[in-house]
């Protein structure tokens, strides 16, 4: 019973200054041998290079630059009252900033609609051109069509030749002379067509 018996600390073990601060480990010799980083400022023993002079005339150069240079544009400012302080107008919010709009960078609807109409018109134009070219495209005659065409030309030539043979021996009137020349022209044209078709095995014709 009674108070607990606790050992009284010795007055020699008093709390010393910095005794509870963490202690750094001892420095190793390897770290001592490392090379120190280069200083960004000149050393005390360094001496500047002397005797270097420039031949440039800085006064004339600055004068020419001031004369030929463009004047600086003043920054737009605003004041809150007649004798108030000046503030930059750009960062005040009084000037509209289009890059901060919700639809900034979005293609307008009328431009999109016009582009679609142009594309549709272009497609219709190309389709019309293709259809026109198909109508006027070249068609190859088959062997059967070529033979039937050749037989028809020969038959026509025989009919014209029969009519030519039926002419009278003496052509004494102008109508008879004109009719004879007409038959001769038809026969000559038919002979030319027959020769062309017999000479060429492959024949193309244009679609009308």
What would your notes on this structure say?
With about 210 residues, the chain is mainly α. Helix content is about 45%, strand content about 5%. It has a two-stranded antiparallel ribbon. The protein has a two-stranded antiparallel ribbon with strand order 3-4. Helix 4 (about 145-165) runs antiparallel to helix 5. It is elongated and about 170 Å long. The termini are far apart.
List the helices and strands and how they pair.
Layout: H1 29-33, H2 58-68, E1 77-79, E2 86-88, H3 109-135, E3 138-140, H4 143-165, H5 174-199, E4 204-206
Antiparallel strand pairs: 1-2, 3-4
Strand order in the sheet with the most strands? 1-2
N- and C-termini, Cα separation: 133 Å
How much beta, percentage-wise?
5-15%
Helix/strand/pairing category? mainly alpha
Roughly what percent helix?
Answer: 40-55%
Sheet of most strands: 2 strands, antiparallel
Query: Which series of helices and strands comes N to C?
Result: HHEEHEHHE
Number of strands: 4
Primary descriptors:
single chain; 208 residues; two-stranded antiparallel ribbon; two-stranded antiparallel sheet; mainly alpha; 4 strands
Could you give a short description of this structure?
The protein is mostly helical and 208 residues long.
């Amino acid at each position: 019973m009674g108070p607990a018996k606790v050992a009284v600390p010795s007055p020699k073990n008093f709390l010393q200054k910095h005794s509870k601060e963490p202690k750094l480990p001892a420095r190793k010799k390897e770290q001592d041998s490392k090379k120190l980083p280069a200083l960004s400022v000149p050393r005390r023993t360094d001496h500047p290079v002397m005797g270097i002079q420039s031949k440039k005339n800085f006064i004339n150069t600055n004068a020419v630059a001031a004369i030929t240079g463009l004047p600086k544009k003043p920054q737009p400012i605003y004041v809150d009252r007649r004798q108030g302080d000046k503030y930059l107008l750009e960062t005040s919010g009084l000037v509209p900033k289009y890059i901060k709009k919700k639809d900034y960078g979005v293609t307008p609807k009328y431009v999109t609609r016009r582009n679609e109409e142009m594309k549709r018109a272009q497609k219709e134009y190309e389709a019309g051109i293709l259809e026109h070219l198909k109508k006027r495209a070249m068609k190859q005659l088959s062997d059967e069509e070529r033979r039937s065409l050749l037989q028809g030309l020969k038959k026509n030539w025989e009919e014209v030749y029969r009519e030519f043979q039926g002419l009278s021996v003496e052509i004494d009137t102008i109508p008879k002379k004109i009719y004879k020349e007409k038959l001769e022209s038809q026969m000559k044209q038919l002979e030319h067509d027959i020769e062309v078709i017999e000479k060429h095995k492959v024949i193309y014709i244009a679609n009308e």
